[in-house]
């Protein structure tokens, strides 16, 4: 019976990976710009990648890792090369999203020195945005004309591993202080007693906390699902990179909140506090959270994290890989309050879904 169960497990997992890679191959033959989010199942593209371009390059490198074909290498290098000038961005807290999945992955697979240098430059550009007086990197975002210089997004935790990587690869050790101070500020204000996190926190120019808020969630005090995913995964990545037990313990606290609020179908609502029984789902939040849970399992050895991640990924594979959407992961919600990408696919959802599937496969193979 155990053998059969293992076969059943590997069958759905391998099938999900194969379907994602087949769709990626089909997309490679069509996409000439960076996919952002879908509308009616078709991707909307951006020429410069806005903040999501790194996820498409990341998918391409993941596909190439599995199938090192000339066509995939050409596509991966083409799109990675196009992002390299963004390493000099000075009002962009998402440089980790843009360079970790793409340039760093490409450097590891090809040893191209310009990819490594671009990632180091991006790390310096991210650190240069640090407000030392206030103790944080502003969550600039790409939100039109709104002023964000005194606001911090929980998303930024996901970008700090770029700084940790840089220090380990010839960067300035002072980058570690940026990680420590920003994370301390974020955890002191974003983290709630129940393990959930605010999406946004506003500060004075001097770094005094004013209030928690949201931009893409239901309400200031609610628990926007993708934000919880960013928190658990960002903290798990930092805990691993820096061997930091406080970050690990905090990631587990966020994980426990997520696990206690997942609906019976294992796919998060777009906001855990939305009272509507038919509230939109956010498959991307599920994929991001599942990846974070698998990273926690690797660090802690606690089976409940692997079990939960497996259930989430299996549910996503069963219901969110659909033929009529160019994305790998349908039924995501990009930004419900602003009417963007509702019940659609997103670049980040696609990337973390495939990344989590690979992670689960690696864990299973090691057992």
Explain this structure to me?
The protein has 367 residues and is mainly alpha-helical. The chain has helices at 2-28, 53-66, 70-83, 95-110, 113-127, 161-168, 175-189, 225-242, 245-261, 283-300, 303-319, 347-366, and strands spanning 34-39, 42-46, 151-153, 200-203, 209-213, 332-335, 340-344. It has one domain (2-366): Glycosyltransferase, CATH 1.50.10.10. Strand 4 and strand 5 form a beta hairpin.
Using the 3D structure, state the CATH architecture.
Alpha/alpha barrel
Strand content: 5-15%
Global structural class: mainly alpha
User: How can the largest sheet be summarized?
Assistant: 3 strands, antiparallel
> What is the arithmetic mean of pLDDT?
95
Distance between the termini: 17 Å
Strand order of the largest sheet: 3-4-5
User: What's the structural domain tally?
Assistant: 1
Do you know the CATH topology? Glycosyltransferase
Helix content: 40-55%
| Tally of DSSP β-strands | 7
CATH first level: Mainly Alpha
Radius of gyration (Å)? 19 Å
In sequence order, what are the helices and strands, one letter per element? HEEHHHHEHHEEHHHHEEH
Count of DSSP-assigned helices = 12
Uncertain spans, ≥5 residues at pLDDT below 50? 1-5
């Amino acid at each position: 019976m155990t053998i059969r169960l293992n076969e059943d497990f590997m069958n759905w997992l391998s099938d999900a990976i194969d379907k994602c890679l087949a769709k990626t191959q089909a997309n490679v033959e069509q996409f000439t710009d960076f996919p952002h989010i879908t509308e009616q199942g078709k991707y909307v593209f951006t020429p410069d990648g806005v903040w999501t371009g790194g996820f498409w390059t990341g998918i391409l490198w993941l596909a190439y890792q599995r199938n090192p074909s000339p066509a995939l290498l050409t596509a991966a290098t083409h799109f990675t090369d196009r992002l390299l000038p963004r390493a000099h961005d000075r009002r962009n807290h998402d440089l980790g999203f843009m360079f970790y999945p793409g340039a760093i992955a490409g450097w590891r697979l090809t040893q191209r020195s310009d990819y490594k240098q671009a990632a180091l430059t991006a790390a310096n550009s991210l650190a240069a945005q640090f407000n030392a007086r206030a103790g944080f990197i502003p969550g600039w975002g790409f939100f039109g004309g709104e002023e964000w210089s005194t606001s911090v997004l929980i998303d930024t935790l996901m970008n700090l591993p770029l700084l940790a990587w840089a220090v380990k690869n010839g960067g300035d050790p002072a980058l570690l202080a940026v990680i420590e101070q920003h994370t301390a500020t974020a955890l002191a204000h974003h983290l709630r007693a129940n393990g959930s996190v605010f999406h946004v926190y506003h500060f004075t120019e001097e770094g005094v906390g004013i209030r928690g808020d949201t931009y893409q969630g239901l309400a200031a005090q609610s628990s926007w699902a993708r934000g919880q995913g960013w928190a658990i995964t960002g903290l798990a990545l930092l805990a691993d990179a820096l061997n930091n037990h406080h970050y690990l313990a905090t990631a587990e606290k966020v994980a426990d909140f997520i696990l206690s609020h997942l609906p019976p179908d294992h796919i998060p609502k777009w906001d855990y506090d939305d009272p509507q029984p038919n509230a939109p789902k956010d498959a991307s939040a599920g994929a991001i959270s599942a990846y974070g849970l698998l990273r926690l399992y690797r660090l802690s050895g606690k089976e409940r994290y692997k079990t939960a991640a497996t259930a989430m990924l299996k549910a996503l594979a069963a219901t969110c890989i659909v033929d009529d959407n160019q994305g790998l992961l349908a039924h995501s919600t990009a930004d419900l309050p602003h009417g963007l990408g509702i019940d659609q696919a997103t670049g980040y959802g696609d990337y973390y879904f495939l990344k989590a599937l690979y992670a689960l496969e690696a864990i299973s193979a090691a057992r």
